[in-house]
Design a protein that fits this description.
Length: 511
């Protein structure tokens, strides 16, 4: 019951009341330090009260709980050293990482915790010591890997076509070689080495990605932009296309250009994932993801309707015409593709002035230009501009969240020997097996002096105002309006003189 009440207090909107009640309940806990402590019992979702405060974005409760867990090591004047308990914060030995919970939650308030002590210092330590070097090395290794795959595709085994053309529009010159003909010369053996590297890399990608999908869940793993969800879809699809290409090569099946071209596009697009390692480029990846899966997905439904309607109209208009004079609409698939190019203004309106064009073509094309080019494209630009404005105002939070997500990902995938645990074990200070982070803090004395001055003036003004109010209330029935205004004026003057005198006394003492 006590643990349930603690979880309920974390969700309370009145944070000050919740903190006091939290302390009151823990004062009756018999196992304050043992494994049976109320603070260590998780709820049905596996969240302790401390983790629940982070997921809900309750910064007041989080700071209150951290203040309870910190240990003051020493202090000398304005300098002090504090040990913060990071046992539940550090993701090194946690199955359900506190940092991963913060960046994967849908509440924006939770990302503010990443800027609080000691989370900010812990993430900075992990990222600067291990995360950034490993991530840059991984980016360089992936680019070299993609260069190897691209060269294998460029020099894939082809031979001249021997069959006769069955159509005047057939433009094929080379065809794919059979498996027995693909690996004969010395250049083919070099290409075989690159192909083996490509296939091994695809298998490694699947081996690393599938366990995380099973652990987190497909919806959460692919749906979170901060965690790089769309890029996970891209890299898994890329690996599958590589394996499909390998099967088609081994079975001498024609048409390997289809999965190979998909793999090239997806593989090089995945390079944008590594932009999150740089503060200047990281928020732009989030911006692209939000535009593609937000604005563009909604816009594509409207675009598909317009393209289908006008492409059908263009095909019907030119169905009775000679395709050799104007071949952009000679069949229905080509009409769809040409209308798509017209929609994006990639090409101008096709026309052949040597022949008579149908009158309805001019009418339909006029309506298409007004609706598609002037209206819908400007609508898309406005939608993307709004998304850019919203993401630009959150770019600092998004950058910190991307760094945390990348750090947790690398920490889970790399061996323990390459990523030692951060912090100091509590045994060195007689604090048990819990881990702590040493943070040196410098207290600005001028700031505290100003606070003392402010409190002194406020306290004196408050006392004088209370005394004046009591006096006004006791004589309120007998005094006239003129006397009330005079008394108020004299009260304010005496208050200002007394406050000033007390403030100058504090200044003299400090000097």
């Amino acid at each position: 019951i006590g643990n349930t009440v603690l979880h309920i207090l974390v969700l309370q909107p009145n944070k000050t009341f919740a903190c006091h009640m939290y302390s009151l309940i823990l004062s009756y806990d018999r196992n304050k330090e043992g494994p049976g402590s109320l603070e260590l019992i998780p709820n049905n979702e596996g969240l302790s009260p401390f983790k629940l405060a982070g997921v809900e974005g309750n910064t007041v409760m989080f700071q209150y709980l951290m203040q309870k867990r910190k240990q003051n090591l020493w202090s000398f004047g304005p300098l002090s050293t504090v040990l913060y308990d990071i046992t539940e914060i550090d993701s090194w030995a946690e199955d359900q990482s506190f940092l991963e919970l913060i960046v994967s939650t849908k509440k924006r308030e939770a990302r503010q915790i990443l800027d609080l002590t000691p989370v900010k210092e812990l993430v900075s330590l992990k990222w600067n010591m291990y995360g950034r070097p490993y991530f840059c090395f991984l980016a360089l290794f992936y680019i070299l890997y993609m260069v190897c795959f691209t060269m294998c595709c460029v020099y894939r085994p082809l031979k001249p076509r021997t069959g006769n053309r069955t159509s005047s529009r057939d433009n094929t010159v080379y065809v794919q070689k059979m498996l027995q003909e693909s690996y004969v010369a010395y250049e083919d053996e070099l290409r075989l080495v690159g192909e083996l590297i490509t296939v091994i890399g695809a298998v490694v990608i699947l081996v690393l990605e599938i366990p995380d999908i099973l652990r987190v869940g497909a919806a959460k793993y692919f749906g979170q932009t901060i965690l790089g969800g769309p890029f996970h879809i891209i890299v898994i699809t890329y690996a599958c296309m590589i394996l499909v290409t390998m099967v088609m090569r081994l079975t001498s099946t024609t048409g390997e250009v289809v999965p190979m071209s998909f793999a090239l596009v997806l593989g090089w697009c995945n390079v944008m994932y590594f932009a999150r390692g740089f503060q200047m480029l990281g928020p732009f990846t989030i911006m692209i993801q939000k535009m593609i899966f937000g604005d563009l997905m909604r816009f594509c439904w409207l675009m598909a309707v317009v393209i289908l309607g006008f492409a059908s109209a263009f095909y019907i208009i030119f169905q009775t015409e000679n395709p050799e004079n104007l071949g952009q609409f000679y069949n229905y698939p080509m009409s769809l593709f040409t209308t798509f190019e017209l929609f994006l203004t990639i090409i101008d309106g096709p026309a052949n002035y040597d022949v008579d064009l149908p009158f309805m073509y001019s009418v339909v094309y006029f309506a298409f230009a007004i609706i598609a080019t002037l209206l819908m494209l400007n609508l898309l630009i406005a939608m993307m501009g709004d998304t850019h404005w919203r993401v630009a105002h959150e770019q600092d939070e998004l950058w910190r969240a991307q760094v945390v997500a990348t750090t947790v990902m690398l920490e889970r995938k790399l061996p323990r020997c390459l990523w030692p645990r951060s912090g100091i074990c509590g045994r060195e200070f007689g604090l048990g097996d819990r881990w702590y982070l040493r943070i040196e803090d410098r207290v600005d004395p001028n700031k505290h002096k100003m606070m003392r001055y402010t409190e002194a003036f406020k306290a004196q003004d408050r006392d004088n105002y209370d005394k004046g109010s009591e006096k006004l209330e006791s004589n309120g029935d007998t005094l006239c309006k003129k006397e009330l205004s005079a008394l108020s004026l004299s009260l304010s003057r005496s208050t200002s003189r007394t406050s000033s005198h007390r403030g100058w006394e504090i200044l003299r003492r400090n000097t």
